[in-house]
Predict the structure.
Amino acid sequence: MKITLKNFSGLLIIPILFFIVSFLTLSHYGISWDEPIHFTRGQAYLNYFLSGDLNYQDVKPIKRRSFYQDNSFTGQFFIKNDSGHPPLNGILAATANFIFYQKLAVLGDIESYHLFNILSGTLLVLVVVVFAAQSYGLLAALVAGISLGVYPLFFAESHFNIKDPAEAAFYAGTIWAFWNSLKRYDWRWLLAAILFFALALGTKFNILFLPFILTFWLAWRYPQAILHPVKAVVRLPRHFLFLLIISPVIAGAVFFITWPYLWQDPLAHTLNIFRYYKEIGTGGLGQPHYLTWGGFNLFPITWIAITTPPIILFLTILGVGGVFLRKEKEKTALLWLIWLIIPILRVSLPGSSIYGGVRQIMEFLPAMALLSGLGAQVLVRLFKRWVGKNFLSQSVLGMVVLLLFIPHLLVMVNLHPNENVYFNIFIGGLQGAQKANIPYYGNSFGNAYYQVVRWLNQNALPGSMVGLIQGTSVNIPVSYFSPHIDYSNSVWSGINRQGEYLVELTHQGNEIAYLFAWEYINRVLIPVYEVSVDGVALAKVWKNDLEHSRPEYLDEQLLSIKDIQRIDDALEIDLKDIVSLSKLKVEFDEQSNCQPFTVGFIQTSVDKINWRTEIEKIPEYQVKSYPSLEDGLLRYIFPANPAKLIRIKTGSTTSCLFKNFKVEMRGFKIDN
């Protein structure tokens, strides 16, 4: 299809609609876990580029300062301590914040950063629509654009994922522009491809695998050029050839110029970045149950199969079939198929790593959407062949194909704003994924925190304290909370139950840190609010007080002690019955003729055979303002776990803990 001004304006309907819906729903989403560092670093570097200052001290006062313009993390800090993913996407997001929040005040602090995200997503939808239209016509373009726009992972995360949708957009832009450049060997299209490549390289290193896609495709498209490469290169127009030769220099220059961290020691710091990618991209992280064929990982393709909407999956399969049915000089459909395969294959090979689903390789999505568009065209042609060419017009059949997306759109509305936890009917939805214990089911990557905050802002009384169970305070911007709420991770009071709210995500694989706290809240407290999809909780709120404790943990009592004795380097306490422990208190004499008690740990048992070592060591702070060890005093709290025997290990047979000790145990009696 030849793109003219008239039909191009028609093609804009899908990307414009995607942008409008995304923009109107910006405030419905939170932030992802890794956005804060990108916001903070982006602001630090942007400030350096605009003012030449490595800190914010000399910046002219402005009415609105972003929460992420942090005096502790300035350009001076990042130039010395930076690493990980490149910062260009963060700088672009910070630029959007600088214009639309700090200067114009037309968007909120967080929403202005997220404007970059949805603009990137809109760019990707535009590229997909135009690419499909150029290759296979209007129906393919409409279906490809819709398939991408309503893909649950993409729609949700184009609001709050600062890396992957942007990387997918620049990745797709590179392929599309390069494909166009080969039509007439147009150097302007080639320059566009190089600039897209540079933007992608400045976001993530995923783009470095693009040459594999292009090499395989070019080998099929130009077989004679592979046999006679010198002759093929000589025939290229001079401007095109020159630009092609210097393309690595252009992309490398953009990468280097936009990352001041590299300026200090280019070679060492660049090697440091490659080491980072090697660490996160290899090692076989994650899914041992999906390994087969000598370590080949079936998890990525399994995840795609159970998280892709059935209509898109069906049309994509038809599109893949269409690749082998079509005979075309440019072999565009083959390009899309290779583009789909390479990112998935890369994280499936033995020794490779991927976690959290497939958001890290989102560049496969535009290829899937394009093949879905091709599949729609194949479906219409097959129908006309089977039923008869004159039965229905192609435009009517195209409308029927588009109507097939309506059931999925209803699912999207029902999921909103948690579309990125979608699982399809083949696994039984999110509830089915939970039953099958699919890795990372229900993982919203931090988005669900915002829904918890909105509930707290409406329901928590003034002066209420709120803390996270295992997340850090950067996971939820303090600006999200109403001024009357005290948000701090230092409010945890444990079994003392001082009334603070505790919030946390509850997806599969989340309960991996702070086991003590998780045991306590799951055993003792009743959630007061849940963010749930399909009956599966994505996040919960607990109120740590007696009113919201389970009945069996309301009546804390002083426990009867049967016997206490020192055994080697331990003080062993034998209770009369098996109880749920809550608190231990030991008073003892600090004397000059004993070993000061400074470190230790506690074990518990119900039968004196099997012993459990408590996670919290001595003298860690278990809860706010509650040191476990002071001069002559040991205090320890338990997550209401059952025990009959308690053993305090000191590491010394002459510990002061054994001098004139007085023991007090508290807990809850267990009904037989």
Observations:
- The mean pLDDT is 92.
- The two ends are 78 Å apart (CA to CA).
